[in-house]
Each structure stands twice: as structure tokens, then as C-alpha cells.
Design brief:
Two copies of one chain form a homodimer. By secondary structure, chain A is α+β, with helices and mostly antiparallel strands. Chain A has helices at residues 117-126, 128-154, 157-172, 186-193, 197-209, and strands at residues 41-45, 50-52, 60-66, 69-74, 80-86, 91-92, 103-106, 110-116, 179-181, 213-216, 219-222. Chain A starts with 40 loop residues before the first strand and ends in an 11-residue tail after the last strand. Chain A binds chain B through residues 73, 75-77, 79-81, 83-84, 94-97, 101-102, 121, 124-125, 128, 131-132, 134-136, 138-139, 141-143, 145-150, 152-154, 193-194, 230-232, and chain B through 73, 75-77, 79-81, 83-84, 94-97, 101-102, 121, 124-125, 128, 131-132, 134-136, 138-139, 141-143, 145-150, 152-154, 193-194, 230-232. Chain A binds a DNA duplex through residues 15, 156-157, 185-187, 195-199, 201-202, 205, 217.
DNA sequence: CGGCCCATTGAAGCTCATCAAATCGAGTGG
DNA sequence: CCACTCGATTTGATGAGCTTCAATGGGCCG
């Protein structure tokens, strides 16, 4: 068992340093969007700042350099749904043509690179490798969205939460590690899963009691990253 | 009021011919996939036949020539979710790389054109117009999937049903017409919306009583195609 | 210490799923 | 034309799961 975690179900030890939890490095490896880096402008936003408003037409896409960003749709009566979370390396907003139905805002302090959509289009026309990368990226986004449809359409609260934790584990944990840090609050998780935040809280408490996860603050350790809640990954 | 519909809430008249309901013509206009038509093989499937099994890796994509096709994911315990319905002109399966999580089957008798994914890739590399069309098509699919996330994540049963009817009206009704014919059964609609089929049935009965729709068999007339259930289109 | 944000826990109510049964419509065959 | 059958739709009754409202507690920063 990792020393970072308390043995008791409810962790009460003082907050330890994040020993052994290295955040996935932001921009070490070469990235398929690198060719466009020069043409993009760096933008910084603080936690909870807006980046694009809901309904706003934008000629820009965004590459996340570091931090975490969410896309959210808010209905008149206040109901909210998070479309996706995006982390370092992700491209965001390419699919929105005229007027996006999702707003974009910062979950944590973030650094972004703002890219003109036309610049992406143009470069895709010149560079077949880049073109293929772009298509693959869109295909992956589409597969992810469709899998999430199954989670939201047919998953129970427990399955939705487990699905979320698995996704975040895959995207945020260093290779081979069970531990990772969730950058977002319960409210965001709830709106990502179409649940009430109380339900998310109770669900995570259940998983803790069942021995599926350990938690300490926003640190999570997924004890059985492989199996568990059926085909709802 | 259209003569096709009875004035009583529950239509009891004998089934009339589909007067005034012209199905959207299958392949009249030129289509961006036409350049690949020669390289594709025509495949016919009857109602409820499988086209691709769940989990099967396939090197093919499918263009719908006529009829209606569904993609469905079935969990071990029998829960099922429909990913999308596809109609004449749609391209299907391009985003599935190795092993798709959704099966493909025929809702009605269908005619398909089977296209090799590599042929699409290759042609995209040669023809910039085609390449742009492909990207736009994927972007549209992605936007549709994300909007549906909001419907499944935050919509009530009534909103989901209204959203479905609006989508089908937009995709199936001749321009300007209120009437259209739903090719799929209640079970499919329910699995598309993440509801029990009884709930869909009751919801449509409510809409009928509320004067939002008229129904006769699988014919639907959407009386207020524009407004209604908030931003959940 | 006091204030604020967020997480947690409890209790009550509502929506929707589930189980069960009746009805309807389209075929089919006498 | 009518009886029979089968799949699909409709309606009713009951209960589970989740939301909502409300209150408490914990951690952090001034």
C-alpha cells in the first residue's frame, strides 16, 4: 500500500506532499500540432475563467499546453452538462463551426495556444501526415463521445462514476501508476456524469467502502484499474 | 388539418395511403462520396439483419444508399443503447479503427455501399475538396454526438422524446412538411434515448394529448417544429 | 478566530423502470 | 370473411434509484 494513503476508510492524516505522483509532463514529447505552434498565440487563464462563451461563434481552436479545461452547456433553468475535460496536448473547438453550443472555461489555471481554424485547414491541405493525425484525432473524439453516450444513457450512478475514474486514470496517471490527482471539483464531475453532486459523493464513498478506490483530498488511487463495472468503461 | 390524420386523439380510421408524404428521395442529388462509388460494392440487408457484429474489427465503412440502419451496443446483462440511426446518404463506420464497440444492423430493408477505409483515406489525400467534406462530416457527427450527451445526461423523458422527434423531423421530413414516417420501433427509440419503451409510449401519448404531435401508425406530424422543450433540441 | 468553499450525511419526494396484463393490427390459413 | 397467431403498443400498479432540500463538518486563508 502506498504511504500516501491512510489505512482507514476516511483519510484523516495531514496532507502529505504529492510524493510519487508525478503529473504527466506537459509538453515533453513532440506533438502532431507542433508545426502550427509558431502561428498560434499563447493565452493564459486562471481557474474558472471563461475562454469561449456559450453560443459565441469563434474562428479559433485551442491547444491545451498545461492545465485542465472543460466545455459546458447550460440550459435556461440552470441544468448544466460538461461535454468534455481537456488536458495538455488536447485540441479543442475544431468541430464547432458556426456558434458552439458548449462554452469553454478553465478548470485549473491553464496555458493555451490559440490556433486559427483556417490555419489548421490550410496545413492539413499541405501536410498529409498532419491531415491523417487530424482525422485520427477527430475519430478518437467521436468514439469517446459515443462510448460516453452508453454511459449516460444506460449506466447506473455507480457505473458512471467508475467509468469516470477509469477515464481519468487513463488520461492523468503516469504510466503504471494507480494514483492520480483529479483537478476538478465534485460539481464538475456531477455535471460530466449527469448526476447530482451528492450522488457522486455517495457513490465515491461506496467505492471506498467496497475497497475499489482509496482517496485523500483530490488524490485517487484506483485499486483495480482493469475490471469491475462491466463493459461500461 | 391534414386529411391523413383523425381528429380524435386516438386515430381509429383505416390506414390511408401515404398521401402527401413523399419520402426524401434516396440518391437524386450528387453526393460527396460519389467519387468512391465505383470502388464500392453494393450490399443488401433485410430488416433486422446484422451488418457488423459488436467488437468485430472491420476494414470497411458503409454508405447508406436507401433504408435505415442503427448502431447498437449491448451489455452483458442485456441493456442496450443505440448509438445512431443512419439514413440515405450517411457514411458509417469511418471512425471505428480497431474493433468497434457498436454493432451495426438494419432497421428496415437497406441498400448499402461497402467502402474500404483505406480507399477513403487514399482519396482524401488526393482530393482536397473530398478531404474537406470528410472533415466536415466528422465534425457534424461529433457535434451531434455531443448535443446528444446533453439530452441523455440532463434531459427528462419528455425532453428526450421531443428531441428525438425534432431530429427525425429534420432528417426525414420533406422540406416544409410537418409529417414524416418513423422507420423504427418503440424499442429502438427507447434504446436511443436511454428509456424504457413503456416510458416512450407514455411520453408520446402525453405529447399527443398536449397537442404537440399527431400520430397515425408510424406517421408523425410535429405541430410545432420550432419551439417547445427548451434548448434540448 | 471567523468566513468561505466544498464535501458529506440525512430525510423525503418524484421520476422512471419493472412487472404484468390487455389490446391492437397485420398476416395466415381455413 | 372469420378465427387464430404473433409482434408491437398501450395501460396499470408498484418499487428502486436518484434528486432535492436541509444541515453539518472539514480545510484553508484572511
Amino acid at each position: 500500500m502506498h504511504s500516501t494513503y491512510a489505512a482507514t476508510p476516511i483519510a484523516r492524516n495531514p496532507v502529505p506532499p504529492l510524493s510519487g505522483i508525478a503529473l504527466r509532463s506537459a509538453a515533453a514529447a513532440p506533438h502532431w500540432l507542433d508545426p502550427l505552434a509558431a502561428s498560434g498565440m499563447i493565452v493564459r487563464k486562471r481557474r474558472n475563467e471563461d475562454i469561449v462563451a456559450q453560443g459565441e461563434a469563434s474562428e479559433y481552436c485551442w491547444q491545451i499546453v498545461s492545465g485542465c479545461v472543460r466545455t459546458a452547456m447550460v440550459l435556461e433553468d440552470g441544468r448544466r452538462l460538461i461535454g468534455e475535460f481537456h488536458f495538455a496536448g488536447d485540441l479543442l473547438g475544431y468541430e464547432a463551426l458556426g456558434g458552439q453550443s458548449f462554452a469553454v472555461s478553465a478548470v485549473s489555471d491553464v496555458v493555451l495556444r490559440r490556433l486559427r481554424r483556417t490555419a489548421i485547414e490550410a496545413h492539413a491541405g499541405r501536410d498529409p501526415k498532419f491531415d491523417a493525425h487530424l482525422r485520427q484525432y477527430m475519430a478518437a473524439q467521436l468514439r469517446a463521445a459515443r462510448n460516453r453516450l452508453a454511459v449516460l444513457g444506460r449506466g447506473t450512478a455507480g457505473e458512471r462514476i467508475m467509468s469516470f475514474l477509469r477515464e481519468m486514470h487513463a488520461r492523468l496517471a503516469p504510466a503504471g501508476a494507480r494514483e492520480f490527482v483529479l483537478p476538478m471539483k465534485l460539481t464538475d464531475i456531477a455535471d460530466y456524469l449527469g448526476l447530482a453532486l451528492e450522488t457522486v459523493c455517495r457513490g465515491m464513498a461506496d467505492l471506498r467502502r467496497a475497497g475499489a478506490i482509496m482517496t485523500n483530498r483530490s488524490q485517487i488511487a484506483l485499486l483495480f484499474p482493469a475490471g469491475g463495472a462491466g463493459a461500461l468503461h
